[in-house]
Amino acid sequence: MLRAGQSLVLPGALPLDGGQRLEDVRVAYETVGELNAAKSNVILLFHALTMDQHVVSTHPRTGKPGWWRNSVGRGKPIDTDRFFVICANVLGGCMGSTGPASPAGDGQPYAMRFPVITIRDMVRAQVALLDALGIERLHGAVGGSMGGMQALSLAANFPERTSAALVIAATARHSAQNIAFHEVGRQAIMADPKWQGGDYYGSGKGPDAGLAVARMAAHITYLSEAGLTEKFGRRLQDRPDGTKGAKTFGFDADFQVESYLRHQGLSFTDRFDANSYLYITRAMDYFDLAEEHGAKGKGSLADAFAGTSARFCLVSFDTDWLYPTAESRHVAHALNAAGAPVSCVALSAPHGHDSFLLEVPALDRVIAGFFNQ
Amino acid sequence: MLRAGQSLVLPGALPLDGGQRLEDVRVAYETVGELNAAKSNVILLFHALTMDQHVVSTHPRTGKPGWWRNSVGRGKPIDTDRFFVICANVLGGCMGSTGPASPAGDGQPYAMRFPVITIRDMVRAQVALLDALGIERLHGAVGGSMGGMQALSLAANFPERTSAALVIAATARHSAQNIAFHEVGRQAIMADPKWQGGDYYGSGKGPDAGLAVARMAAHITYLSEAGLTEKFGRRLQDRPDGTKGAKTFGFDADFQVESYLRHQGLSFTDRFDANSYLYITRAMDYFDLAEEHGAKGKGSLADAFAGTSARFCLVSFDTDWLYPTAESRHVAHALNAAGAPVSCVALSAPHGHDSFLLEVPALDRVIAGFFNQ
């Protein structure tokens, strides 16, 4: 059974990696399936950067079906006849969990007063949610992209809390190129005069133009060069006046890929908060699981997993250039060194990083096989 | 001998691919070396998107040395003891050649009244320059990136004008991904309120913030993932207060790669006109040499080279993901089909697309070998 629209306020203050403690943290979440009496059938699903808890339920802002309803449901790879699936909006998000748009102690939105958070902080909030729900140990944790980072962070930092972690199209550390693309997005937002140092909540007008540019730049990295070529190539748009695809010798969206990207940018601003985008990308850039474990950033990734009792499955896609297969292999080597059981699956899929959100039958088989053990 | 700062106004109107004719086109250029009596020792050097005619001379705005002085000069791979090198600022540029910042017939800057131009239009302007200088046939044409596109366009469209074309890190058509990255940059510029529909010339304030974001996004594509990792990795900036690299849990440039990118963006705005960036990227996106030659865009690339009498050398870099080696191979196959002599050299260099501007000894050997035949 789907229960969308749930939320709770964590009972205590949430300690953060930055040293602060955040009071009255609300966590918004949805659940699918039924929790068994032993509370032993829980799969915690971590969402990616611009996703949210609407895994199966219709998105309240876009009206679109849940982002992973292909893979989660009755008889689906994550079978909700058997498992109780929880997905929570991340700390710093904008879909009900506490984030920069939430009221601070003074009743005004935090805006840029919101503390900079980390992936581990996001995981802390969700572990606190599990505590509140009385769930001690997960059957499994799963996530793609930033969701995969959270699954790794959970297994490393809260090793007693999960029996399994399925990590899809993710990495244990953000590379210089990853950071660079995020920085372009942040600068695009901050360069928009409507950003107003983050204090745009009362104005009715946020930095939509900057956020759209940020989304456009990021969106390119989610697709593969071959996928873009196959989907759009150099095909031209038909014109509103009925002219079949022809160059206009102007700056309208002549090419279909331009039109597509503009649409991606604009539609994103209807559903996402620009400040959340700043905070969540920052958390991803700060992510370096090895560095968290060891003196002065000298830890090895194997150290991060020293205490884990989980089994792991790492999935990558051959056309994903954002978090390529080499990143998964790097994690697998560390898990091997830590003595953790791990399988590493490199799938062939044409659509780059976004493949984890699309219909990839081989991925479904991996998911089903892993959790039904 | 270096003669910087030259320019001339083309005698007739310049016909453009868009159907317009542009009057009073000024072409700014510099020459190095001495033209021989037969005018047979000329190498025309085409510059890339954000470069200009300052190949050897100090850049008047940045004070930096010429962008290819490593490769052009006495005893250099393009030996100016032997060759007379010409490099002209492209049509649409902002370093002296006619572009959107130039006065139109009414004395006001063209701004967005400037016609959308193509790579072939840029080449037309430079062929007209050769006409004005009485140079019938080049010893060779050479260029990297957009310069390479111009070299290909010259060989295809003005086959009698050059005996050789050296094409470095280029392509015969802009891919969907290339177009997508350019579109992000254009949208970043146009989203900046200071762009004012292109009419910012009188205001004293151009869309610097948008142009900087455009440059940042593009700059990532000029580098390789491995190059970025080697140069910056996840290293943190030292703080102004003397703190050694540490996360600030804020939105300053914590990572060196962020600081580097911000600097690239900001410094670019001191030397480049935002409208020129729009027009030149548009020209590159329109570039599809096969489509120009044949009915209704059904031409093959081999058709484009049917009339050429030049010999070709195509150089690519293994870490260039903007115009990868496969693009050079595609051109080589077409040249083979057209019966043109071609050598195709895939060099190993760590720095991605930008390798053509850096010291790559193997590239120098290829250049010297090709032109000294």
Provide the descriptors you would attach to this structure in a database record:
homodimer; 373 residues; alpha/beta; Rossmann fold; Rna Polymerase Sigma Factor, Chain: A; 2 domains; two-stranded antiparallel sheet; 12 strands; globular
| Multimeric status of the protein | homodimer
Q: Supply the number of helical segments of chain A.
A: 11
Task: Using the coordinates above, name the CATH class of the largest domain in chain A.
Answer: Alpha Beta
Structural class of chain A: alpha/beta
Strand order of the largest sheet of chain A: 1-4-8-5-9-10-11-12
Description:
- 2 copies of one chain form a homodimer.
- With 373 residues, chain A is α/β, with parallel strands linked by helices.
- Chain A has 2 domains: 2-176 and 286-371, Alpha/Beta hydrolase fold, catalytic domain (Rossmann fold); 179-278, Rna Polymerase Sigma Factor, Chain: A (Orthogonal Bundle), CATH 1.10.1740.110.
- In chain A, 33% of the residues lie in helices and 15% in strands.
- Chain A has an 8-stranded mixed sheet, sandwiched between helices. A two-stranded antiparallel ribbon of chain A has the order 2-3. A two-stranded parallel ribbon of chain A has the order 6-7.
- The two termini of chain A are 23 Å apart.
- At the A-B interface, helix 3, helix 4, helix 5, helix 6 and helix 7 of A face helix 3, helix 4, helix 5, helix 6 and helix 7 of B.
